[in-house]
From TrEMBL, chain A:
Residues 1-23 form the signal peptide. Residues 199-246 form the Chitin-binding type-3 domain. This is Lytic polysaccharide monooxygenase. Residues 184-194 have a biased composition (Pro residues).
UniProtKB/TrEMBL annotation, chain B:
The keyword Phosphoprotein does not apply. The lineage of its organism: Bacteria, Bacillati, Actinomycetota, Actinomycetes, Micromonosporales. Residues 1-20 form the signal peptide. PROSITE patterns: PROKAR_LIPOPROTEIN. It comes from Paractinoplanes globisporus. This is DUF305 domain-containing protein. It comes from the Bacteria.
Length: 246, 194
C-alpha cells in the first residue's frame, strides 16, 4: 500500500519463488533504538502525534544515496519536520549507536553523516548482520547540538534505511576534551504515570501491583501480576494472568 | 464488531466463575483462556499466523524467563514477568485452536517465510542463547534491543493476519497482539532511553 514496488533489484531478488503477498510492514527492517532516533521517539511516545510511523519505526526505507530523515517517503515526512523541536539526547564525544533489525538483510555498509559530512562508515561485508548492531562513532569534532543521519545500506537491494538522531554532543559543553568515557545521561524524566490507587477505574499507563483492585466496565478485578498497564491489557478473559474477577 | 465478539467471549467465563466460585484464584487458570473458541471457519493465513506465533512466542517465553531472573532494572523485571504471564496464556489458546482445526502446532515457519523477502527474522537460537551468557552489566541493554526486534516481528505477523485472515476470533486476537506489543515496545524504548 505504501511501497510502490519498483526498484529493479528488489524485483529481481523477489523472483526466488515468492507467491506470498507480504503486507508492507512485514518488509520493514530496522532503526536506531539508542540514542533514540526520531522514529524511536515517536514509537516510545516521547514525541506525540507522529502519525503511523509510531507503529513501525523500522520502516523508513528509501533509495540509496538520500540525505533525508524520512527516506523520501511522504508518509514519514514528520521525521523531517524541524519545527517539531526534536529533543536532543546529551551524549559524550564517543557515541554508540544501536540498531534494532527486524529482518536481517545482507548489508553493504552503514554510514553516518552530520550536516552532509560523512563522519563514519562501517563495512557490512555483504553479510547477514546480527539482530542488534552497535557501532561507536567519534563525534568530538562536532560539539553541541547536531542531527546525525544514520544510514543502513542494504546489500541486495537498491534501498537503504534512514534515521535522524538528535544529539547534544559532549554533554552540551563544546569545550569538553575528547574522552571515550560513557555518555553522561541527563536526569531522566520518568514517564509520569498516575499514582496507583487501591481501587479505581482501570487505565493504561498505570503501574499496578499485586492485590491492587480496579473497576472495569462495572466489575471489580484484582491484580495478580504486577505490571504497567497498556491498551489491550485491560481485564478480560485474555488477561486472566494479570487480573482476576472478584 | 470486534468489541461485541470480545464481550461474547468474555461473559460466559465471568458468569461461570462469579456464580459458583468462592475462591476465584482456584477456579481460573490458563485452561479458561484455552477455552476461548475460534469456531471452525478459517483460511491458510489464520493457520500460518497461529503457527508462526506459536513458534515465535515459545522463543519469547525463553527470553522473558531469562529476563525475569537476570534483569538488573526492577521495572524491566516486572515487564518481563507480565509479558511472560500473558503470553503463556495466549500460547495455550493458540495451541487449542490449531489442535481443534487438526493442524500441526509446532512448525518452524521462519526459514521459508523470511527467505521470501530476503532476510532472517530478528531472533534465532543463537541470539536467545547469548542472553544467557552476556555479562550481568550488559544484560538489560542486550535483552531490550533483542526483545524489541522480537516484538516488532510479532506486530508484523499480526498485520498479516488482520489483512488476510478469515477467522474473526483469530483476527481479533491479532489486533490484540498488535496493540499489546506496541505498548510493550513503548515501555522498552522508555526503559532504554529514559
Amino acid at each position: 500500500m505504501r511501497r510502490k514496488i519498483a526498484y529493479p533489484l528488489v524485483a529481481l531478488s523477489v523472483t526466488a519463488g515468492s507467491s506470498l503477498a507480504v503486507a508492507s510492514p512485514a518488509l520493514a527492517h530496522g532503526y536506531v533504538s539508542t540514542p533514540p532516533s526520531r522514529q524511536a521517539l515517536c514509537a516510545s511516545g516521547a514525541v506525540a502525534d507522529c502519525g503511523p510511523i509510531q507503529f513501525e519505526p523500522q520502516s523508513v526505507e528509501g533509495k540509496k544515496g538520500l540525505r533525508s530523515c524520512d527516506g523520501g517517503v511522504a508518509q514519514w515526512s514528520v521525521l523531517s519536520d524541524e519545527s517539531r523541536n526534536w529533543p536532543a539526547k546529551s551524549v559524550g564525544n564517543s557515541v554508540t549507536f544501536t540498531w534494532v533489525l527486524t529482518a536481517r538483510h545482507v548489508t553493504a555498509d552503514w554510514e553516518y553523516f552530520i550536516e552532509g559530512t560523512k563522519v563514519a562508515t562501517f563495512d557490512g561485508g555483504n553479510a547477514q548482520p546480527d539482530a542488534v548492531v552497535s557501532q561507536t562513532v567519534d563525534l568530538s569534532r562536532f560539539p553541541g547540538r547536531h542531527t546525525v543521519l544514520a544510514v543502513w545500506n542494504i546489500g541486495d537491494t537498491a534501498n537503504a534505511f534512514y534515521n535522524c538522531v538528535d544529539l547534544n554532543i559532549g554533554g552540551g559543553s563544546p569545550s569538553t576534551a575528547p574522552t571515550a568515557s560513557a555518555p553522561t545521561s541527563p536526569p531522566t524524566t520518568a514517564p509520569s504515570y498516575p499514582p496507583t490507587a487501591s481501587s479505581s477505574s482501570w487505565a493504561p499507563g498505570v503501574s499496578y501491583k499485586i492485590d491492587n483492585v480496579v473497576t472495569y466496565q462495572g466489575k471489580k478485578y484484582q491484580c495478580r501480576q504486577s505490571h504497567t498497564s497498556i491498551n489491550s491489557w485491560e481485564p478480560s478473559i485474555y488477561t486472566l494472568a494479570l487480573w482476576l474477577p472478584l | 464488531m470486534k468489541r461485541l465478539l470480545l464481550v461474547l467471549l468474555f461473559l460466559p467465563s465471568l458468569a461461570a466463575c462469579g456464580s459458583a466460585a468462592p475462591s476465584p484464584a482456584a477456579t481460573l487458570s490458563a485452561q479458561d483462556v484455552a477455552e476461548i473458541q475460534a469456531g471452525d471457519k478459517f483460511n491458510d493465513t489464520d493457520v500460518m499466523f497461529l503457527q508462526m506465533l506459536v513458534y515465535h512466542q515459545k522463543q519469547g517465553l525463553e527470553m522473558t524467563a531469562t529476563a525475569a531472573s537476570r534483569a538488573q532494572s526492577p521495572d524491566l523485571k516486572v515487564l518481563a514477568q507480565a509479558v511472560q504471564a500473558t503470553e503463556k496464556d495466549e500460547l495455550s489458546m493458540m495451541k487449542s485452536w490449531l489442535t481443534q482445526w487438526k493442524r500441526p502446532v509446532d512448525v518452524d515457519t521462519t526459514k521459508s517465510l523470511h527467505a521470501d523477502h530476503g532476510g532472517l527474522p530478528a531472533t534465532g537460537p543463537a541470539e536467545i542463547k547469548a542472553l544467557k551468557t552476556v555479562s550481568a552489566a550488559a544484560f538489560d541493554t542486550a535483552f531490550l534491543n533483542l526483545f524489541l526486534a522480537h516484538q516488532h516481528n510479532a506486530i508484523e505477523m499480526a498485520h498479516l493476519e488482520t489483512t488476510n485472515g478469515a477467522n474473526e476470533a483469530v483476527k481479533a486476537y491479532a489486533a490484540r497482539v498488535r496493540e499489546s506489543r506496541q505498548g510493550e515496545v513503548q515501555q522498552m524504548l522508555r526503559l532504554m532511553n529514559g
